[in-house]
Hints:
The chain has helices at residues 2-29, 31-58, 67-76, 82-89.
Amino acid sequence: xTKFFKxxxxxxxxxxxVLFFNMLVIKPSDIDLYKTLxxxxxxxxxxxxxxxxxxxxxxxKNQNWSLxxxxxxxxxxxxxxxxxxxxxxxxxxx
Length: 94
């Protein structure tokens, strides 16, 4: 399960950055392309975000995280690049 969590953490981080790229780079230059890409990128990111949060709770005991570490892992889902940090620092045995 930790391998899957690592994959989801990286994919969620990438989808977050792609979503920001769509909002900050594509939207000002091509509004039609922005609108076309918004739903698939947003849906993918939403599914990966929910998967990340659920899997974090699922492996909380398996990784022997304290409540503070679980809170950090959950908070990382809200910050750009933070899921990459979590994947390296907190997820072991994969």
